[in-house]
Amino acid sequence: MRGTLENDTEGVCERIVTAVAALEDVDPAELPPLYEAVDPDALTAAFAETEGGTARSGRIEFPYAGYEVSVEFGEEVVVTVE
Among 47, 55, 38, 35, which Cα is nearest to 72's? Predict the structure, then answer.
């Protein structure tokens, strides 16, 4: 199963949980807390704009609820759940 979402960094953690819930066909509240897999604050901060205002880019991968989650940041945020 695969889901890809393209959005900005605002709410990326919520989008991860929503994507996995959609793939599992369950309510997001039924999933384990995301913080058990990754620090949500660190994930959001990792690719926030720098103090100079430039955008960062990169990729973070981690397992969550039986899926491999990949978050790529650049011109847009792409969340892939496989």
Answer: 47
What's the farthest any 2 CA atoms get from each other in the chain? Answer: 42
Identify the bridge partners of residue 67 per DSSP, sorted by sequence position. 64
Residue 78 in tokens: 């792409």
| pLDDT for 62 | 97
CA-atom Rg of the chain in angstroms? 12
Kindly state the tokens that stand for 37. Answer: 């897999």
pTM exceeding the 0.70 threshold for the entire prediction: yes
